[in-house]
Amino acid sequence: MRLALRLAAVAALVVALTTVMTRPRIGRIVVSKSERTLRLLDDRGEVVREHPIAIGRAAQGTKEVEGDRRTPEGEYFVCVKNPNSKFHLSLGLNYPNAEDGRRGFAAGRIDAAQLEAIETAERERRRPPWDTPLGGEIFIHGRGEGREGTAGCIAVGDAAIEEIYALVYVGTPVRIEP
Which terminus, N or C, of the chain has the lesser number of Cβ atoms within 10 Å? Predict the structure, then answer.
């Protein structure tokens, strides 16, 4: 009985290691708002997977303020993984990033302390403040089947977010293109 349990444990370990070792390594996520696609790229820049998406209802232009229903554009990274999302699973992006913060500061939307907090979060590769007038809580999330649009997030189907969630790590770069 003990030998059978040990053999089963070793077999389970081999299967788990094989699964991890053969899983594609995702080097970057590229979102095309105009094409309505999310692409997972490996470390060489080759497309590993592609998924259809829904984006913010105000599709043109980058996000500027809370409630504008736009999806941001630019270079971001996954700053948090949320296994308890009301949208199945979700990956939080570091919006607003330093560039968004500088643009918001120049427009008089945020103050110097808010800009500093945003820039510090980016330097330290952590979640920025999501409670400024620029908005926040921009996620790649599930529940995207049949959606016409979002409040600014990037929505994919539940099966897609399960795959993406499993393959992507906190810190993974995300480029959102017009």
Answer: N
**Residues sharing a CB contact under 8 Å with residue 175, sequence separation 6 or more, in sequence order:** 28, 29, 30, 31, 74, 75, 76
pLDDT in tens, 39-90: 999 999 999 999 999 999 998 999 999 999 999 999 999 999 999 999 999 9
Q: How far apart are CA 96 and CA 110, in angstroms?
A: 11
Residues in the chain: 178
pTM: 0.86
CATH of 25-177, one of 3.30.420.40, 3.10.20.90, 1.10.3720.10, 2.40.440.10: 2.40.440.10
